[in-house]
């Protein structure tokens, strides 16, 4: 996310994200381990990390997880949640400007946030921070439209 008003739009919904936003299947970690070589030496950048829903799944499987988030309130929720976790690093940044060093990241993850990014600037930044060979792992929670509540929500 660019650090502008679009990154601030979630400030008033942080408590709802913490209470109600669903997590992601634990099978995602198996995919990251098997296909992207996630291991206890990996440095991961979770971009657009929000309140840390996906970040939390990664922490026990990597050397370090940088949670890159431009929104202050979202970032503070993650910082509170993971205050005691030694592998968690909170970073004020965006997909287009992570502030991470060049060639510093083994895996980049983005969980239900990529649609907010500027694709060209994000690609440039991801190529800058990603070691070679590296991985970019994009995931989304998809709503089950068979459910009446989800149909009405859509």
Number of strands: 5
Q: Per the principal axes of the C-alpha atoms, what is the gross shape?
A: globular
* Beta-strand share of residues: 15-25%
Low-confidence stretches: 1-5
Q: Structural class, from helix and strand content?
A: alpha/beta
Main beta-sheet strand count, sense and barrel state: 5 strands, parallel
Run of helices and strands? HHHEHEHEEHEH
Assign a percent range to the helix content: 25-40%
- Helical segment tally? 7
Oligomer: single chain
Strand line-up across the major sheet: 3-2-1-4-5
Radius of gyration: 15 Å
What's the average pLDDT? 86
Notes on the structure:
Helix content is 35%, strand content 20%. It has 154 residues and is α/β, with parallel strands linked by helices. Helix 6 links the parallel strand 4 and strand 5. Mean pLDDT is 86; it is low at 1-5.
């Amino acid at each position: 996310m660019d650090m502008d008003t679009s990154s601030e739009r979630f400030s008033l919904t942080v408590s709802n994200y913490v209470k109600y936003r669903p997590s992601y299947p634990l099978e995602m970690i198996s995919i990251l381990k098997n296909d992207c070589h996630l291991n206890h030496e990996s440095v991961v950048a979770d971009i657009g990390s929000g309140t840390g829903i996906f970040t939390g799944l990664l922490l026990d499987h990597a050397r370090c997880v940088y949670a890159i988030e431009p929104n202050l309130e979202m970032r503070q929720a993650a910082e509170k949640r993971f205050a005691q976790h030694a592998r968690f690093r909170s970073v004020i940044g965006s997909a287009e400007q992570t502030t991470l060093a060049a060639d510093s990241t083994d895996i980049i993850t983005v969980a239900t946030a990529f649609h907010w990014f500027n694709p060209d600037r994000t690609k440039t930044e991801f190529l800058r921070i990603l070691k070679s060979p590296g991985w970019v792992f994009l995931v989304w929670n998809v709503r089950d439209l068979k459910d009446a509540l989800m149909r009405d929500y859509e």
